[in-house]
Structures are given as C-alpha cells and as structure tokens.
C-alpha cells in the first residue's frame, strides 16, 4: 500500500473546475515530481492533499486513512509537511526562532538545528538575524530548512527554485537532494533539470489531470514525450 494515494480527485476554486480527476501515488522513501505548464493544477494538487482546497470528489489516503474532510492542521499532525511556494516564515522572528518553532517537541531541538545548519551553513551565520531581513534566497533556504526539521513522513515541496539566482538554486538543490535520502517528497518543480536531479518518478500534469508518468531514466531518454507538456 502506498504512503499517499490520490484517486480521482476533483477540486474547484468557486465554479472553476481545476482538478479533473487526479490519480497519483507516492511510496515511502520516494521523491516524486509533479511537472507541467503554469496553471495546470500542480499547486492545487498539493493544496487538495493539505485540505486547503478540499476535493469535491475523489479520495486522498495517507497511510491508508482518508485525509478528506480533515482540517489542515490535522493533516499536518498526521506527518504531512509543506514547503509552500510563497516562503512562509515568521519575518519578525530570528532564523533560530523560526527553526525552533518548526521542530516538534523539545527533545529534537539540537538535532533539528544541526540538520538545518548543516544543510544551509549561511543560516547558522545568520541565526540571530530577523528572518524578514534575509535575502530572498536565504528566506527560501529557511523555509526549506523549516520543512526539513519538521520530522514529517511526507514533505510537499512547491517550486523550491522559483525566482532564485542560479547559485542559490544549486544550494537549495543540494540540500533537498541530501534531505531526500531519508525523506519522502512530493515536489512541484518547473525546472526540469532540477526535478530530474531530485526525483525518482514523475507525473506530468496537464489540464487538471495526470497525463503521463515515468521514472527519471524514462524522462531523460524520452524527452520529447515530456517536453511537449512543459513548453508554454
Ligand atoms: N485562489 C484561487 N482562486 C481562483 N483560481 C485560482 C486560485 N489559485 C489558482 N487558481 C487557478 O487555478 C489554476 C491552477 O493553478 P495552480 O496554481 O494549481 O497551477 P500550477 O500548475 O501550480 O501552476 P503555477 O506554476 O502557475 O502555480 C490556474 O488557472 C489558476 O489561475
């Protein structure tokens, strides 16, 4: 049985029918990427799992139990973490306070901080700095680090490379790649080379549906099949 399963998920914003029957699954330990053009429903798929945009039809199961109808904080309590596209951090708190707030319980604090600082050494240098005064790239690192220290069984990661300078993308990619060795992730990423680097498996999303799937080798070997869904 898969860790996460979406079965015929339909989701709407008001009257707009955005997800038109999404089927996908994520196994324990996998990194799975959702790729596809802008506006096809990738973020909405993550939002539907989190019950931020609850599905009107279909089923979402995590460890065989339905998430549909739960509150978002209850989904989080089940061990589903989220690194949103808009880099949600507490801008008035310091870097370290942001990390501490993301670490569950008090026993794991020093391990959690060590993991975050190991992944992003710049965060250790800036640990006493107010997060709102960090550069955009550093804020993204902090948002990712907050996700990594959360001891989640599944991490939903939305466009981690968006809007970042190439050097920062490389740092983010490296940290995610290290983290992925012992984490399970469902990742939305438009940057295909980065997605290829990180993911074991892909789903191509188009018009609110999964239209193709393959492992990383299949994607590289058969680029055209995927690229036609990725170009604008
Ligand atoms: N809060 C909202 N209210 C109404 N429509 C929305 C809302 N959020 C997104 N949409 C629309 O839903 C569709 C799917 O958006 P979604 O963010 O899931 O796409 P995406 O595949 O993640 O692409 P992107 O990379 O642009 O975020 C788009 O047409 C978008 O305009």
UniProtKB/TrEMBL annotation:
Keywords noted in UniProt: Amino-acid transport, ATP-binding, Nucleotide-binding, Transport
Single GO molecular function: branched-chain amino acid transmembrane transporter activity
Ranges for domain ABC transporter: 4-232
Xref: SMART domains: AAA
CDD domains (UniProt xref): ABC_TM1139_LivF_branched
GO BP of this protein: L-amino acid transport
Entry keyword annotation includes Nucleotide-binding: yes
Gene3D superfamilies xref list: P-loop containing nucleotide triphosphate hydrolases (3.40.50.300)
Family the UniProt entry places it in: Belongs to the ABC transporter superfamily.
The protein's name: ABC transporter ATP-binding protein
Origin species: Haloarcula pellucida
Lineage of source species: Archaea, Methanobacteriati, Methanobacteriota, Stenosarchaea group, Halobacteria
């Amino acid at each position: 049985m898969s860790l996460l399963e979406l079965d015929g998920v339909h989701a709407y914003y008001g009257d707009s029918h955005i997800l038109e029957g999404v089927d996908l699954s994520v196994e324990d330990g996998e990194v799975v990427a959702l790729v596809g053009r802008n506006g096809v429903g990738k973020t909405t798929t993550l939002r539907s799992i989190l019950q931020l945009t609850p599905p009107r039809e279909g089923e979402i199961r995590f460890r065989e139990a339905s998430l549909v109808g739960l509150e978002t904080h209850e989904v989080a309590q089940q061990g589903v973490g989220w690194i949103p596209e808009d880099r949600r951090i507490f801008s008035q708190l310091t870097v370290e306070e942001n990390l501490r707030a993301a670490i569950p319980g008090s026993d794991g604090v020093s391990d959690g901080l060590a993991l975050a600082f190991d992944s992003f050494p710049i965060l250790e240098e800036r640990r006493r700095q107010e997060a709102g005064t960090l550069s955009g790239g550093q804020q993204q690192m902090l948002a990712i680090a907050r996700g990594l220290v959360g001891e989640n069984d599944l991490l939903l990661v939305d466009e981690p490379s968006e809007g970042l300078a190439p050097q920062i993308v490389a740092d983010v990619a490296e940290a995610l790649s290290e983290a992925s060795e012992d984490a399970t992730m469902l990742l939305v990423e438009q940057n295909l080379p980065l997605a290829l680097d990180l993911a074991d498996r892909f789903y191509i999303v188009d018009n609110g549906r999964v239209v193709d799937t393959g492992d990383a080798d299949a994607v590289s070997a058969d680029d055209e099949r995927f690229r036609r869904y990725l170009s604008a």
